[in-house]
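Exercise (ungraded).
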Amino acid sequence: MLKQLINHDQVNKSDYKDLEQKIRSRLLQAQLRVQQAKKPVIIVIAGDDRSGRHEAINRLSKWLDPRFLSVNAYGPSQHEDEAKPFFWRFWRDLPGAGEIAVYLRDWTSVSIVQFLNGEIKKSKLSKRIDYINNFEQSLIDDGALVIKCWLHISKAELTNRLMEIRDTPFFDIKDELALRNYDFAVETISSTLAKTSNPNRAWQIYDGSDAKSRDIAIGNTIADQIETWLDSAPKPTPKLKWSPSNSTHLEFPEKVVSYKEDEYKARLAELQEILRKQMFDVQRLSIPIVVAFEGWDAAGKGGAIRRLVAPLDAGFYRIRPIAKPSEEEYRHHYLWRFWKHVPRNGHLTIFDRSWYGRVLVERIEGFASEFEWKRAYSEIKDFEKQLKSHGVLVLKFWINISKEEQLRRFKEREVTPHKQFKITDEDYRNRSRWDEYVKAVEDMIEYTGTKKNPWHVISSDSKLMSRISVLEITTSSIKKMINRRS
Amino acid sequence: MLKQLINHDQVNKSDYKDLEQKIRSRLLQAQLRVQQAKKPVIIVIAGDDRSGRHEAINRLSKWLDPRFLSVNAYGPSQHEDEAKPFFWRFWRDLPGAGEIAVYLRDWTSVSIVQFLNGEIKKSKLSKRIDYINNFEQSLIDDGALVIKCWLHISKAELTNRLMEIRDTPFFDIKDELALRNYDFAVETISSTLAKTSNPNRAWQIYDGSDAKSRDIAIGNTIADQIETWLDSAPKPTPKLKWSPSNSTHLEFPEKVVSYKEDEYKARLAELQEILRKQMFDVQRLSIPIVVAFEGWDAAGKGGAIRRLVAPLDAGFYRIRPIAKPSEEEYRHHYLWRFWKHVPRNGHLTIFDRSWYGRVLVERIEGFASEFEWKRAYSEIKDFEKQLKSHGVLVLKFWINISKEEQLRRFKEREVTPHKQFKITDEDYRNRSRWDEYVKAVEDMIEYTGTKKNPWHVISSDSKLMSRISVLEITTSSIKKMINRRS
């Protein structure tokens, strides 16, 4: 099946020198143009066992300027990787604008290997395929070029290659298994490649049996694809089907009920003690936790966060305040910086503002284009689904106050010496767009709040109530998670 | 001995609430000022076993705004850390300008523990002490504040604490040993703290027996030190004893001898094959390698690097082209970005330009102040010594050409279509300062080329000769390293 997809010529030995020189100069030229165009290029070199992936990548590194090429070849025993969701390391190593990154052991081939080794089931592989498609599409939507090469060899060729190395230290017991499983493996590969192909990022299949023909063909694909991509007129931005929701998730009660000070203190202490104790189980069970806080300016996010972490061991959590992206972050997909901070198993990360900035401030201020923020809803859902499927407990809070209460707090801050720094013109500017924000928040909750990943809207006109609510929801969610995992 | 150094009051239980409120507001104020002053603060909380370091850090995280505090508490089984030089993770986690970072398990206490556990010998501990002093001094010279707190408890108190937990899961066999070793441990701690104290960064000793008194005292130290540091008039820049060298390491031969094309090709292939084979041993022996390339514009660094990596497996090396620092890099000590890229054991990193920029371009263009570049010579020596002592093979190449040859190559580039992008006005500007650069290079070689870490000046008026020289020196250095480690 794979064989029929091979679509390149054999190279005569005598022509090779010439062809190599030509492809080299094309590739160098293409690399330079990528730098100038400030767009990222992702190249996947994957393939059957013993099909020469390493050799192909080594040759590519010789042809291209290796100083501006990063090769991501993941070795074994990367403990850090295993303690994070599957896509974490691939995100971490994504090229920035103007960079080219080559992946050996990419997301698709590792998934296939995991399935063939019995580490993941068919259903998990199919889920993975969805994630792969969404991941790649999201990179392409963000302006990247994704080139995917698969190296294939026939059963006869594999047999020959194994014969050659049978009595050397290069031979591995796994090779024996690979040969025995050959037909099934090729079937799985064929179907997986078909399911992860798309006109924008189709798998190209190469015959791995002759190294020179293979590498010239790969080089040509890469040069062709980069040239076409850079030469073609920019595509019109796709119109996304999207309509504002008519939902009313935000409530602004007229009357505020609050705790009495001593009731509050007692309940706070009680919940903090529960949380403190839960952490033993969280660490024992290696549960990772992500908490995202969003909310109106002056709604009390900071205070809620402080009460949440107070009972925790400082080595166990990190708080990531999210401000505008740095240069480096800006050169990457907007989710890159959030993926980077996904906690390892058994740890907690709190985001003080989060990836939802894309559909809130970036939408309203126009920092994200319509195509960008409209597609962000599904990108975000996918991100959170991936966290979940790795076992991360994800909690999302919208800290809500009424427009009147916000004004009251702004005024209060202005007259309180140690709070004055907290209030700036920007706060008033944001406030003047209150109604637009309400719509954006409603859309966000409607389109990203799922049954499994709900938004918790916390009424915060009473700060005391809101701090208690955050702790109640957190402890009860952790409790459920612990029970499920025990 | 430690006991006599304790210099804080006991807190009455009845006063605690008041004191806590006061210290909290001072700390929050101090934290805000640090952000505004855009300077980094490093706080070390270390101490005897069972002296309450964790509790103290947790309390600090409650008092300060935890959103802008990073706590570096290193757990066990950080494989990545072990495959890197000792100071690597501490450098990685350094605060940037305006940030406060707290270290639990810092460089000094880990060194003491390693010594007490027999993992390092007395001589290694003494070497470590030198590195610690240099490390901290270098941070202070760079504008940081370093606050170091040591929590101490008496033998009687330790005995009590162990009695209390003896029959609980919190008791550890190591506690038994700690008690038996108490006197020796305190002796080691006392002498190590004395040797790593300095008026700018003296260890403060606290009585760990009463948690409240201890934490109030620590809080006061931190607030006092930050306030004093920010309030005091900027110190006049120290005058460093330094004089230009009169060395003549650079040679500019009038007559250039080169290889014939076929001789070159044969020798190149031979050396690349040697290098290729050496890599099996390098990986087997887990030898990390760092190669730094410096040299004149158009001297041929890129070509030499390409010939060097051509025989290598692409997953094994990384090339780091060094341009101007990013925002984030700029907010840190200048060595921070180089520490970040130190390879793990068994890997190779090539720096295309390096930390030597500090004493070359930054010196000449005035990007570094006199105090900065003058002290950089010893900072750099220390950095490389640390790499060496971890077992890193460090190679440093200066690729040298004559002024005439440089001009010839500039002209050649200008008329070669695919090389035109390589030549800019900046190249001519640098060239106009040739003589100043010669002096800077001479000083660099004189002051950072040591017997163990020599500079290799590569005559590159003939590119072919220079590529061969780089490979010859590299392979022979690797060979020596392999022999030593086998």
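Further reading is listed at the end of the chapter. For now, observe: The domain at 13-231 of chain A is CATH 3.40.50.300 (Rossmann fold). The mean pLDDT of chain A is 94.
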